[in-house]
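SAMPLE LOG
Freezer: B-3
Tube label: C17
Construct: single chain, 122 aa
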Amino acid sequence: QVQLAESGGGLVRPGTTLRLSCEASGRTFSIYAMGWFRQAPGKEREFVAAKNWRYGATYYADSLKGRFTISRENAKNTAYLQMNSLKPEDTAVYYCAASSSSKWVPSEYDYWGQGTQVTVSS
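STRUCTURE (predicted):
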């Protein structure tokens, strides 16, 4: 099993920057990839970004490419989501997820965190 814990959410003003963290624990050696999703009020959960931990490839939602960046810090078993130029429409609960499958695709994961709220408002 892999446990995931997100942190770094909060209330920020439009145009600012925020970095979310997702610390993995447990069988971290089994992680093949990690991703970030978000769910805004009244909307379905949507894919944000993902990173293949074995080979380093990254994937982004087309609408977020260029503003959001996913990265990892191996020593801390932690994935990050750097969010720049935040907009009110970025308001959502952000979830991190992990997959242990070598057949992973960016939309499918085995483990999920509890989520962290990001609110962008003036």
